[in-house]
Amino acid sequence: MNEQRSVAVWRDGAAVTVPAHQPVVTAFDLGLGRGDGIFESVAVVAGRTPHLAAHLTRLTRSAALLGLPAPGDQAWMEMVAAVLADWPAALEGVCRLFLTRGLGDGTPPTALALLAPVPADTLRQRAEGISVATLGLGVPADFRAGAPWLLGGAKTLSYAVNMAAQRHAHDLGADDVVFTSLEGRLLEGPTSTVVWAAGGTLHTPPVETGILPGTTQARLFTAAAADGWPTSVTPGTVDDLHAADAVWLLSGVRGAAVVHTVDGVRRGDGDLSRRVRELLAR
Ligand code: PLP
User: Fold this and answer.
1) Which of 187, 204, 212, 222 maximizes ligand 1 atoms within 8 Å of its Cβ, making it the mutation to test the pocket?
2) pTM for this one?
3) Which residues in this protein are found as N6-(pyridoxal phosphate)lysine (covalent) (predicted)?
4) Domains, the chain, ordered by start
5) What residues have CB less than 8 Å from 61, skipping those under 6 apart?
6) What is the pLDDT of residues 90-108, one digit of tens each?
7) Any residues with Cβ below 6 Å from ligand 1, and which?
């Protein structure tokens, strides 16, 4: 395992670098005990974080949805700079930003940044594509829009269900998951946004379903529209994935992972992945 890692915490108004093996939260931190917090995963490429701003915007929105006092963009940028300080430019990394409710009762939140190499599996899936299993999430597609306590659209630390879904997919022989609503509408992956190409248009499900607004999907759709490739927010179904010219799961670190198999059924990519990657690289 590559041991290159770095950690910075926000203490008394400053970013403090700490050795990666050193504990940085107390056992009573509510992020640990309740998953009561939020995070972001930011790609580090050539020693830089080209898309940090979009992640900070989403982090601020997640914090507001949870009623967490956010330390502000400047604090995050200082923590990111601290973990990047000795990072080798040739090593692609994933920088995670965590904000938890700390000890609660109005005490300061816990804010920290950590940086580690991109896992080999992620790089392999980006290069080779992925098989997905579609799994029901058990909520109607329109339910979370009117249920703020379910924290739709917030990137919370409560990812146990997302991780369990991925383990379940692995048990089924698949790499990843596409969640569906109670009535069979497409939602998102446990760590990614679903995008499919059909009828000369790029499609993605509506955020009103409670899915996370993907920064990579937003970047792709902006670049595609500027390039003359129409985009649409579409309430799709699993049948739409089978019928599509191409399907990708998009996320900041893995990028556009082409879906070559849906529920055991092989599918192509219509030779469109190269254009998607080229648009994301702009
Ligand atoms: N949806 C979920 C649930 C996620 O966890 C992620 C990524 O972290 C995404 C979508 C994709 O978001 P982004 O493209 O900003 O990485």
Assistant:
1) 212
2) 0.97
3) 155
4) 6-117 (3.30.470.10), 123-281 (3.20.10.10)
5) 153, 154
6) 999 999 999 999 999 989 9
7) 41, 188, 190-193, 212, 214-217, 250-252
